[in-house]
Amino acid sequence: MVQTDPGSGFQTRNIDAGTVPQLVSALDLQEANSGVRRLREWAFEALAPGAGERVLDIGAGTGSGTRALAAVVGASGSALGIEPNAGLRSVAEERAAASRSTARFMDGDALSLPLSAGTVDAVWCERVLQHLAEPERAVAEMARVLRPGGRVALLDTDWATTVLHPGDPDIMSALTSGALTSAANPYSGRRLVGQLTAAGFVIDDRGSQSLLQDHQSVAWPLIRMLGEAAVRRGRLTESQRDSAYKALSEAAEHGGLHMSVTMFGVVAHKAR
């Protein structure tokens, strides 16, 4: 995904269709993560979508969240997933049809939702705001489309919480700093409460989960991406980078690797 617009990478003109298979694979892996599942379960229960409600999933991806919402609101309600990536939207539609879900999907931008004001009972938005340079505009759009008393669940990553161990703490800190360049809004997780409050929402609950890498393996594609970025920016020398790789590899051989990032969730309602 190439972000050419200062406000949103989630626009049709900013999407690279060639990355769809990799995106689908990445989303499926993320959904299998136990931390993601636990945070989703907590947020879903706190949001409490009910039969007959109109619910909106912003940044629906492969549609798993939209399908879960559709199953709860039932035939008397509606679950709509907004997904600007045509490839992902096609996958979402295929999976919904295969599971006989009533979930529907359409193109749209988080900064300009294709819905009238006050027409939605509940909004789900997961790992979208981290990609937006102007996330406040997206939160304002959620407030616009929600009815008074309508609820919202925001889940997002805070990339500054990335931890790698063992190794020299300063070197590992420089290595993980590369994660801060991977998103337009890398501190998204810690900003959710303030953004919701500023948009007129009342906070109902907050939660978090640490997303852990397997302690017996090394996510080398990600580690090398961070390491090369740190060298390019002058944060690490090649020698320091290689020493970090060696420490992580040796730790994994003995089941002693720690790699994690924290994801936060906030559930709120629109003031009446």
From TrEMBL:
Keywords: Methyltransferase, Transferase
InterPro entries according to UniProt: Methyltransf_11, Methyltransf_Superfamily, SAM-dependent_MTases_sf
GO molecular function: S-adenosylmethionine-dependent methyltransferase activity
Pfam families reported for this sequence: Methyltransf_11
Domain Methyltransferase type: residue ranges: 56-153
An annotated GO BP: methylation
TM helices/strands, residue ranges: none
Transferase listed as a keyword: yes
This protein's name: Methyltransferase
Organism: Streptomyces mangrovisoli
